[in-house]
Each structure stands twice: as structure tokens, then as C-alpha cells.
Amino acid sequence: MTGIFNTALIGLFALSGMGGHTAFATTTAIASTEPSYPSYTVAMTGYNAVAAQTDGDPHITASGAFSNPDIIAARSQDLADELPFGTVIEVMAASSSLNCGYKLINDQVGLRVIGDSMNSRMRNKIDILFDTKDTVRIDGKEVNPAIALGVCKRVQIRVVGKIDIKNIPDTQTGLRLAVGMLPRASEQLLAVYK
Questions:
Q1: pTM of the predicted model, to two decimals?
Q2: Burial of 5 (0-12, 13-18, 19+ CB in 10 A)
Q3: 56: three-class secondary structure by DSSP
Q4: Is 37 exposed, middle or buried (0-12, 13-18, 19+ CB in 10 A)?
Q5: Tens digits of residue pLDDT in 105-126
Q6: Residue 151 half-sphere exposure toward CB, CA atoms < 13 A
Q7: Residues 163-183: tens digit of each pLDDT
Q8: Is the dihedral of CA 51, 54, 60, 66 positive or negative?
Q9: How far is CA 37 from the centre of its chain?
Q10: DSSP H helical segments within 82-181, as ranges?
């Protein structure tokens, strides 16, 4: 019995020593992983900040943010819990099965902040805000990107972060920096001098 007790004690000390080391290694691994955000399959359309396509002041979104066509997207009200105001999304529409004009305007989408809300009759949908002055060419005619996009039926979007709706950056670069998708200038300099 004493032999079993001594063996158990030695095993306990060995495990507790290893456990501390293992816990440190696990903590390090957890600290270095990036947060995991959900993806959703939604319909996608485009809109412009004009009186006919908005409620109230076309320059102010439902969240109170400025209607910046480089940054803002709206979501249907049924997605309010999954995509609250300030959620930053990335459109993952690289699929060739899209039956819409995404390929014509994909360079104008980038990351988007959910800062606006759609009419209550809309379901499972996001709406990308485009500048009224922008155009793309379709069949020899210049049209607004919102029209060129049309209705995309099954688009994957991925949440990539959250941002304070009162401090939305003005540019795609600023938004990418805010959600950690671009290294900060000091990190870039360190990388250059390594």
C-alpha cells in the first residue's frame, strides 16, 4: 500500500509540474488565436442615399451614422440580433454561381459597417450603399453600381469585427486598420527592420 501511495505522490508531483507547464503553453496558444466570427448566407442588393430609397434624411442612416457610400451597409430587420449596428462584414461572393452583377462592382464593396436598416418587409438581406455619382459599364451603357449589382440570391458574408458606430472610419483603409486587417505603421516598420 505504501508503494502505491508513494507512486501516486510522485505521479501527482510530476503531473502538477507538467500541468503548470501545459497550462502555460495552452494559455499562450489561446492568446495567439484570432477571434472566430460567424458567417451568414443572405441575399444582397445595392442602394443609394437618395430620398426615394431611404426614410427621412438620406444623409443619416438608421443608426445615426453618416451615409458614407464607401463604408455603410444596411441589413434587414430580422438580422438585427446577428448583425447589430457597428458589425463589420466582408462579402465572400467569389462564387461563380452568383446570378447577379457582383463581378462588375466587387472592387467597390470592400468591408462594410452595418449602419443602416432596411424596410421591415425585407428578410435575410443586406443592402450595400453606393455613391450616386459612380457608374459601371454594362452593354455599352453607364449605370449606377446598385443597379448593376441587381439581386444576388445566396451570398456568403462573414463578420470580421465590431466598431463603435459613432467612430466609423471614412475610408476602407481606415476600416481595415480599425478591425485589425491591416498592420499598424509601427508594426510595418518593425517588419521592415527585422
A1: 0.74
A2: exposed
A3: coil
A4: middle
A5: 989 999 999 999 999 999 999 9
A6: 5
A7: 999 999 999 999 999 999 876
A8: negative
A9: 9
A10: 102-105, 145-149, 172-178
